[in-house]
Design a protein that fits this description.
The protein has about 260 residues and is of the alpha/beta class. The chain has one domain: Rossmann fold, CATH 3.40.50.1820. A seven-stranded mixed β-sheet has the order 1-3-2-4-5-6-7, sandwiched between helices. The protein is globular. It binds D-malate. D-malate binds next to loops.
Length: about 260
């Protein structure tokens, strides 16, 4: 049995309900630096690391299922006496947010789903994840930038922002192979949550980069259409890691969304 754990998390600023930012794969909470800087000015912003990633490297498991990560988050909220939160997840962070919405709906005040999708993987995608899990355990993380950057960052970013490309490369190379493998195995098992979307009743913001080569605008639009109280916002000239690629636009969208929810 997997041991329960409270994930390490940074917390900056004050304000209720806190905004909790869930990172993408295979990164860690540091990817949210531009949002922490902009939004913690007056509000509390909490950023955990998933099992094995970033500061959670000693919490690695064999299979990091989305449900486990969602329950870890609930343990973190309990440990810090945080009641309801506005939860924002990007890509894998979004998958965890879906599991959290299903398992801990009373803890949600609002939801931001960025560059993520409700559908599960097909057979081919599952096979590719399991292959990457084996490869990263055998070879380490050195191949990740070449394998992933072309779809993690949009064409404009790759062309115009070499500094950001270097920053994301560094983040990829700093992750533990075992964490990358566990997350891939966990994502491979995640369910299709399309039928659960109608039960998400909190205000929801769906964000999508217009240059996202993983989950393009049609994926974001379909996701927003399935959630009763959702707003869909596209971020121009941004790929999958839209919060890093267009921080000013994403911060504005987040502030517009969360301001009415804050007390
Ligand atoms: C992510 O950015 O978290 C990944 O694209 C998620 C995935 O591999 O499905």
């Amino acid at each position: 049995m997997t041991e329960a754990a409270v994930p390490p998390a940074t917390s900056q600023g004050e304000g209720t309900p806190p905004l909790v930012l869930l990172h993408a794969f295979p990164l860690d909470g540091r990817m949210w630096a531009p949002q922490v800087e902009a939004l913690s000015d007056g509000y509390q912003v909490v950023v955990p690391d998933f099992r094995g990633f970033g500061a959670a490297r000693d919490q690695v498991v064999e299979v990091a299922e989305m449900e486990l990560l969602a329950d870890d988050l609930a343990r973190l909220l309990d440990a810090r006496a945080l009641g309801q939160v506005v939860l924002c997840g990007l890509s894998m962070g979004g998958y965890v947010a879906f599991a959290f919405a299903r398992r801990h709906p009373d803890r949600l005040r609002g939801l931001v789903l960025a560059a993520t999708k409700a559908t599960a993987d097909d057979e081919q995608a599952v096979a590719a994840r399991l292959e990457m899990a084996d490869r990263v355990l055998a070879q380490g993380v050195a191949f990740l930038p070449e394998a992933m950057l072309p779809t993690l960052l949009g064409a404009s970013t790759r062309r115009l922002r070499p500094g950001l490309v270097r920053k994301v490369t560094k983040l990829l190379l700093e992750q533990e192979p075992a964490a990358v493998a566990a997350a891939q195995r966990g994502m491979a098992r995640r369910p299709d949550v399309t039928a659960e979307l109608a039960a998400i009743t909190v205000p929801t913001l769906v964000l999508c980069g217009t240059e996202d080569e993983r989950f393009g605008p049609e994926v974001g639009r379909a996701l927003a259409a399935g959630i009763p109280n959702a707003t869909f916002v596209q971020i121009p000239e941004a790929g999958h890691l839209l919060n890093l690629e267009q921080p000013a636009q994403v911060n504005e969208a987040l502030l517009d969304f969360v301001a009415p929810l804050w007390i």
